[in-house]
Automatic annotation (TrEMBL):
Protein name as annotated: folate gamma-glutamyl hydrolase
Classification of source organism: Eukaryota, Metazoa, Chordata, Craniata, Vertebrata
Swiss-Prot/TrEMBL catalytic activity: (6S)-5,6,7,8-tetrahydrofolyl-(gamma-L-Glu)(n) + (n-1) H2O = (6S)-5,6,7,8-tetrahydrofolate + (n-1) L-glutamate
Species name: Pleurodeles waltl
Subcellular location: Secreted, Extracellular space
Enzyme class: hydrolase
Signal sequence extent: 1-20
Residue positions of the active site: C129 (nucleophile), H239, H239 (proton donor)
GO cellular component: extracellular region; vacuole
Hydrolase is among the record's keywords: yes
Gene Ontology MF, one: gamma-glutamyl-peptidase activity
GO biological process: tetrahydrofolylpolyglutamate metabolic process
Keywords: Hydrolase, Secreted, Signal
Protein family according to the UniProt entry: Belongs to the peptidase C26 family.
EC numbers on record: 3.4.19.9
Amino acid sequence: MGLLLLGGSLLLCGSAVSLSQGGGVNDRPIIGVLAQETHFGHLYHYGKSYIAASYIKTLETAGARVVPIRINLTEAEYGRIFNSINGILFPGGGVDLKTSGYAKAAHLFYKLALQANDRGDYFPIWGTCLGFEQLTYITSGENILTLTSTEDVALPLNFSTAPDKSKIFRDVPKDLVKALATKPLTANFHNWSLSLKNYTGNEKLRKFYKVVTTNTDAQLEFVSTMEAYKYPIYGVQWHPEKNPFEWKLPSSTSHSLQAIKVSFYMASFFVSEARKNYHHFVEKAEEMKALIQNYNPVYTASISVFDQIYFFD
């Protein structure tokens, strides 16, 4: 059993690393999804933090189980969770990239993931929308996002990297890649974007991430899909989970068969990445207690932008 020094605290790194050396595939992947502060005032009475259910459902359709990661836990608690899950998703939302509990937890898991991967313990991260923005902030150390007119806009993707040269898209069928490049299949719900100019001008981002796709709001070209060169870290500014599981009207979100397929290919890709990791809970009872099935989502379609939400605290 190894040891990890983080922030002055000594954390146990369980037998997961040694298990990962044995080869094979983990057919029981568990992915953590990070919660964030409830920033919708009229929903606060349901819980102080939340996760939209669409993220959970999308991962489950690809064969993963999900553990909600609550905010404002101790470093030791986050360390134990890290050594028990096989990957983590930073979902979209609307909290501060620097001061929120979401941001602080994301920063910690990011550091743990880099340390793990550097020692041969494969651990993937996926960031969607706010999660994408959070990754850019953590990696660069500064907020270089720019306001764009991209709230509730469906867009095709502009591939700046050939799809077969991208880890994310290389196994997506060619006809679906063509649809992604020519049809408005990707749902955008963000006010802030990483402009291609700011990405190019930031050495830390430029050296860490490959730009896979871009988009434009007619005035500014921004990064919409990126993947790390060295690490299994991925970010999309768009929302794959909304196509199959969010039905709010009016909305530009596509529910076409092709859009649904894109969602499942993205989920399958990330879950496949998590299958390469062998972290596990020490006790079966601890695992069962941690799973999202211990919580009940609230049907919120008439009072929020999400059909269902899990609330915590």
